[in-house]
What does this fold into?
Amino acid sequence: YISGASNQFPDVTLAKADAMATSASTIGMCTADIPDQEHGYITTSGLVHDVNTSTFTAGQTLYLSDSVAGGYTNVAPLQPSYAIIIGYVTSIDATTGAIYVHIDRLPWYPNGEIRLTAASTALPTTPTLFTAPSVVTQQGISYDNATGVLTINVSGSFTLSHTLNCSPSAANKKVYFYVEESTDGGSTWVKSRYSARQLELINGTETQLVIVGSRYYAMGTKVRYYLWGDATVTLKTTDLPGTTPGTVTIPAYRLTLAG
It folds into this structure.
């Protein structure tokens, strides 16, 4: 992959599919060995001969390896790795095999899930930055459970869904919510005016509230959430009625993100 430039020529490094930085700019396969700091040739489209294809079959699709730098495999890596097609096997042999190189990048979908699973958590009664302790998955995002800041690492359109399992102590209790965003690394935060929500709860009834929003985020955008309620509203983790405790559970809070 292209890793820089020197003296008006691109620098190249062995690609690896376990990270975007080492796979997104994959350009091709070396036509022959290139000594370190020397010039050489790379096939970006076409046949490369004299490679070991003995473990493959003719016509197989080859993918960039996510375990060996510069390696290839006939098994597409799964997320969080990246599926980069290198090309197709055209000739089978341990020393004189051939590969038709044609680089293609298969779709990669950012996603994440964050949870609060404490038995009961009282909501604050004033606007408060919300943090959830458990990161289940974070692909294309990163979440700091100490600060509650979610960082977008891959530009794209995202759908974010907040599910709150709320329990009020009396009638006319409400839950309140809004979003803040930063595009300068967290130095400046701006309230997203129309992200505000005011959700009324049923008197004395445990209720799931769902807050859904979709929008485009550029890479590096930071997002955080404010959540509070009227007095004596709690978030509860509950087992579904009729199920064995601990097998089918509604968490007190869940954030899911899909891109």
